[in-house]
Amino acid sequence: MASEFKLAPSILSADFADLQSALTQCEKGGAQWIHVDVMDNQFVPNLTIGPPVVKSLRPLTEKYMDVHMMVIGPEKLVKPFAKAGADGITFHIEATEKPQEVIDLIRSTGKDVGLSLKPKTSVRDIEPYLDKIDLVLVMSVEPGLGGQEYIDGSTERVAEIKQLLTEKELRDKVQIEVDGGIKLHNAKEVIDAGADVLVAGSAVFGTEDPAKTIQDFYNLAN
Length: 222
Ligand code: DX5
Ligand code: ZN
Hints:
By secondary structure, this protein is α/β, with parallel strands linked by helices. The protein has a single domain (6-221), classed as TIM Barrel (Alpha-Beta Barrel). Helices cover 34% and strands 19% of the residues. The chain has helices spanning 19-29, 51-57, 75-84, 99-109, 154-167, 187-193, 202-205, 210-221; strands at residues 6-9, 33-39, 64-70, 88-92, 112-117, 135-139, 175-179, 197-200. The chain has an 8-stranded parallel beta sheet with strand order 1-8-7-6-5-4-3-2. Helix 1 packs parallel to helix 8 (210-221), helix 2 (51-57) runs parallel beside helix 3 (75-84) and helix 3 (75-84) packs parallel to helix 4 (99-109). Zinc ion binds at residues 10, 35, 37, 68, 179, 199. Zinc ion is lined by residues 10, 35, 37, 68, 179, 199.
């Protein structure tokens, strides 16, 4: 494993009128990361969070702020999110013709570089960039909405990426994050396949006691 297991609750499934409580629940449950889903209504059919929200959340938590950009033309948003206080910035391989330039731009801000791929995108498409990034974000649903079903076959893709990283001697350098449809009942198989970070939106914020659910994920992982 590249690193200790981490849970990244996605605030997309939290109450947008009370994100402060969502952060408090994450603190209480002991989640290390906060996953922020950025959607532009072009790359995906939904419109969500921009840099001003990240800026407002930044003073409220010391957690690692994991920004997942589902936007066309990600290069325009890299500096604004870096300035707003993101710790890691992830973009989609499908959203740009110049992935290397986006990687270099994120790198120049000093933030961690994440590269994501949609469920139907070949793992081979991200292969040339594996030695240039810090994280691969494997989508296990079509991006755009919380609360969807985990797509069967995603676990095999995680294992495939882990295998590729191992072959390239990058397993200790690049983390694997899995996003979409993660629940308590399928988390273990995804971790066993190679996930270092699991995103969970509805599974956390759709429950009565999000902090307890976060702890349940950790109990299951360890
Ligand atoms: C979907 C987002 C996910 C979403 C996951 O496009 O990238 O991060 O919040 O939500 P759940 O865990 O409910 O599938
Ligand atoms: Zn996400």
